[in-house]
Amino acid sequence: MQRPALFPPSDGYPPPEDPLCGVARLLGAARDLARAVPDTVVISSGWTYLQGWLPHVAQACVRDGWFAAVGLGRMALSYPELPADVLASRPLRRQALCRTFSDCTTAPRNGLVSMDTGFGDLLRPAEREEVLAATSRVLGAGVRFYAGAFALGAADPRAAYRDAVTAIESRGGTPVLVQCPAMHRMTAAQKAELYAAVAGATEAGAIGFELSTRFAPHGEIWDDETFARLLEIPQLLGAKHSSLDRDAELRRLAVRDRMRPEFRVYTGNDLAIDMVAYGSDYLLGLATFAPEAFAARDRALAAGDVSFLARNDALQHLGNVGFREPVPAYKHSAARFLQITGCLASDAIHPLAPRRPESDLELLRDCARRLGMA
Q: How many CB atoms lie within 10 A of CB 324?
């Protein structure tokens, strides 16, 4: 069962009733439990839908003895300072309130790949370890996630990849093998041998990643021979293709279909997001901007609904704004769009990442209006 929400998570179901009815049922159940076992401390949950009204309802319920305390789950991730702000009589920071409900864990709960280049190439090894630990802790035991395995400055990339893979798998993740500069000097056969050695040592396989230098200098788009050799590695389950070149991706799909149909080609072309209609799966940074809108688009495509076209057009407009040159600045575009739509409290990004000009704010607001998210 999902939490009370007017707009359900993308893998959820439309609410069968007004979400306030669900909130009332949860609070009433906690009250009845507290009355049935008065010597037990009962903590109520399911509060996120109340949004800015949460503190008012919470204080009334605790004051009237319904239960001992109010427990915050997803809200604590997006707005950990909420209790302190309430107790200090400070105004709530509305943009920090959780508005996606369960969609923050939709992908890992369904075994989907949820990743992008992110800031991984800007993090120190110890910081990557901290991110892995936090991800594992937040998702909990038994929930798979996907994480980049880096070997950017390593003299021995094979050893570096194996160390990164071990760190990821020890926390329940699946490694995505991010390219390193040392690969640029390798032949197709040498690259395939490296991928085979690293992927072959994993517990449950790995994902490859070919990345245009428009995203990062350590990236490289494979030649046809390299891709064909990688398809022969059984432990390599798929690969993200981020060339931003529709023709190149269509060639990948044709070779995949001929040689190994079960191999996943994950489009990373945020300038041609309709590649899902041609056989690609997707790992789009753009999907991070508006996951619910992408879910609605995909449902329309699966149902053969013509609304897919309009939904895709609106999302593509956002992609054209967010992923224009310099492409790496899309991460700032993402943070700003999420702030505009109330999902983030600020547009803060890694201090070494490129930023967009202030004039982008109105462009992104227009994108949000087109998607009905303003």
A: 15
pLDDT tens by residue, 254-272 = 999 999 999 999 999 999 9
Closest CA to 47 of 11, 79, 85, 88: 79
Spatial strand order in the sheet of 145-149: 145-149, 173-177, 206-211, 236-242, 264-267, 281-282
Q: Which residues contact 335 (CB under 8 A, 6 or more apart)?
A: 344, 346, 347, 348, 349
Q: Measured between alpha carbons, how far is 171 from 243 in angstroms, rounded to an integer? A: 30
Q: What is the DSSP string of 231-294?
A: TT-TTEEEEEEE-S-HHHHHHHHHHHHHH-TTSEEEE--TT-GGGGGGT-EE--GGGGT-HHHH
Backbone angles phi, psi at 329, to 5 degrees: -75, 0
Phi, psi of 266 (to 5 degrees): -100, 110
* Residue labelled with tokens 């700032």: 332
Number of Cβ within a 10 Å radius of residue 237: 18
pTM, two decimal places = 0.71
